[in-house]
Amino acid sequence: MKIYSWNVNGLRACVRKGYLDWLDACEGDIVGLQEVRALPEQLSAKARNPEGWHTYFHPAERKGYSGVGLYARQPFDQVIDSLGEEAFDCEGRVQIATLGKLTLLNVYFPNGSGKNRDLSRIPYKLDFYSHLRDMLATRIARGERILVMGDFNTAHRPIDLARPTSNTKTSGFRPEEREELDRWLDQGWVDTFRAIRGDVEERYTWWSQRGDVRARNIGWRIDYVYASPAAMEFVVDARIHDMVMGSDHCPISVTLNPDILL
């Protein structure tokens, strides 16, 4: 069973760059998208309901902003779009899907930068991290099988970005943001890529669109699949698909023993 996560930086643009061809060829069972930036009715029929897939979208109230979407080979038992906080829900950042005994969260975590490239959104971002973590605390303690995947918008350790020294004051690598990821791991969550692949250097999931930094692999690893301990028992592989183009992010994936559903 293979699950992908991909920040597409605008699904309509990604479709024009070959998203549907990739979807046909990826051999995934579930694909979670972040930063869809479109209402469902703004998508083409093929993008909204491709043959062989069940689709679910949660757009932001603000047009052309944020939004998440799920594509699944078999229908989910349930999909919830709310964290119970209007300040978060209005931005279309979370889908909580259940399939058998697996709970899958498709999440577009906030960026800490404001409209003027300041740090004004960091308090909102940190509140989002802690609210979601607290919401899942009882469930992870009960031993539920949970995956949280998406664009976390934070590089956790120096190994997770090409130029850590020059970015310590930049949103996405500030101490207070990295500490939030520490709290997730302290609670028991597992970074699936590091657990499976170890401390592999120079593996990134996002590159600036300025200059030729992607060609030179000057990037950040800010997209993750976090697994609860109970879910981690079923993870057999984790990958970064950095050769896939179409967005400033690349897809990531986990492969699971399908018994995770049973």
In percent, how helical is the residue content? 10-25%
Q: Round the mean pLDDT to the nearest integer and report it.
A: 97
- For this structure, the quaternary state is single chain
Question: Which structural class matches the secondary elements?
Answer: alpha+beta
What is the domain tally? 1
Structural Rg: 17 Å
Tell me what portion of residues adopts beta-strand conformation: 25-35%
Q: Count of helical segments?
A: 8
Order of helices and strands: EHHEHEEEHEEHEHEHEEEHEE
CATH architectural category: 4-Layer Sandwich
Number of strands: 14
CATH homologous superfamily (4th level) name: Endonuclease/exonuclease/phosphatase
Topology of this structure?
Elements: E1 2-7, H1 11-16, H2 19-25, E2 30-34, H3 45-48, E3 54-58, E4 68-72, E5 78-80, H4 86-89, E6 94-99, E7 102-108, H5 122-141, E8 145-151, H6 175-186, E9 190-191, H7 192-197, E10 206-207, E11 219-220, E12 223-227, H8 229-232, E13 235-240, E14 252-256
Parallel strand pairs: 1-2, 7-8
Antiparallel strand pairs: 1-14, 2-4, 3-4, 5-6, 6-7, 8-12, 9-12, 10-11, 13-14
Summarize the structure.
One of its GO terms (molecular function) is double-stranded DNA 3'-5' DNA exonuclease activity. This protein is of the alpha+beta class.
Descriptive account of the structure:
There is one protein chain. This protein is an alpha+beta fold. The protein has one domain: Deoxyribonuclease I, Chain A (4-Layer Sandwich), CATH 3.60.10.10. The protein has eight helices and 14 strands. It has helices spanning 11-16, 19-25, 45-48, 86-89, 122-141, 175-186, 192-197, 229-232; strands at residues 2-7, 30-34, 54-58, 68-72, 78-80, 94-99, 102-108, 145-151, 190-191, 206-207, 219-220, 223-227, 235-240, 252-256. The strands form three sheets. A six-stranded mixed beta sheet has the order 3-4-2-1-14-13. The protein has a six-stranded mixed beta sheet with strand order 5-6-7-8-12-9. Helix 5 links the parallel strand 7 (102-108) and strand 8. Helix 5 (122-141) packs parallel to helix 6. It starts with a strand and ends in a 6-residue tail after the last strand.
